[in-house]
Design a protein that fits this description.
Length: 271
């Protein structure tokens, strides 16, 4: 009786396996298991295929090296202008709308771009190596450049080679971004004004005020380096008074240190 039940179970298992194979469900089941075990490859929505950048107008050709130099100079002028404007309300701020990291990235991208086609697709690590900036700094600087409409980028994807594909799953992976220069109109106006005047097109009065402050600081530093006999009598008196006050302050500070040290010694022996 027991052997008869075992034979019946074997027949049922065999028939179920045959049905699964005939319908293809067994293959689907194995594919689903392989896909579940394989780590998912994330690809950003809206990415364009590698090789289709021209169709998406992802690149902007550069006419010549002069156009690129004008772009860099205009970006530097824009950074100085926005920095001067920000310092009227926040004197200790260090960056304008682009930041020095943004200028470094523009200069690096200008070195690696293909002028004839505008092809520009360095990886994030390539930009980090070329500028010496950290990953976080590069990401933030690229965001500022995009907000200023100086550069833009498109995300891209590429097919996975056959030798890298195992089992079921996606056959594409994320590739490096494609960058392009936008050459915004306001930068062209800034540089055009500079060429007409022959000097930097600085905004007034913020930039003029900042220039005067920097000139006064430079003059003060230069005076500090001059010997006494090259200074006026009033300036000599000021410097001598400053030196006397400085030496007096150092003497008082040394005396206080000595008294505190002796007090500590007395306490040590008392206890």
């Amino acid at each position: 009786m027991a052997s008869r039940d075992r034979r019946r179970e074997v027949r049922m298992t065999t028939s179920i396996g045959a049905v699964l194979r005939s319908t293809g469900l067994a293959t689907i089941d194995r594919a689903l298991l392989a896909r579940a075990e394989k780590p998912r490859v994330k690809v950003w929505a809206g990415s364009i295929a590698v090789g289709h950048e021209k169709r998406a107008k992802a690149y902007t050709p550069i006419r010549n090296a002069r156009q690129m130099r004008e772009m860099i100079e205009a970006a530097k002028l824009y950074e100085r202008q926005t920095l001067a404007q920000r310092r009227t309300t926040t004197p200790r701020i260090r960056n304008g709308a682009i930041g020095q990291a943004g200028i470094q990235i523009i200069e690096f991208l200008a070195r690696v771009i293909d002028y004839s086609t505008g092809a520009l697709f360095p990886s994030l690590h390539t930009i980090m190596d070329g500028t010496g900036l950290s990953k976080n700094c590069v990401v933030q600087a690229l965001s500022r450049l995009k907000d200023a409409r100086i550069i833009d980028w498109f995300r891209r994807y590429e097919p996975v080679p056959d030798h890298e594909t195992q089992g079921a799953g996606p056959r594409i992976k994320q590739a490096t971004n494609a960058y392009r220069f936008l050459f915004p109109a306001f930068l062209s106006k800034i540089f055009a004004a500079r060429r007409r005047r022959g000097v930097a097109a600085d905004p007034a009065p913020a930039c003029e005020q900042y220039r005067q402050i920097e000139a006064a600081r430079d003059m003060e530093r230069m005076r500090d380096q001059l010997p006494l006999w090259e200074l006026t009598r009033e300036e000599r008196d000021k410097r001598e008074l400053a030196d006397i006050l400085a030496s007096l302050g150092q003497a008082i500070e040394a005396k206080e240190r000595e008294s505190s040290a002796s007090e500590d010694n007395r306490r040590r022996y008392l206890y």
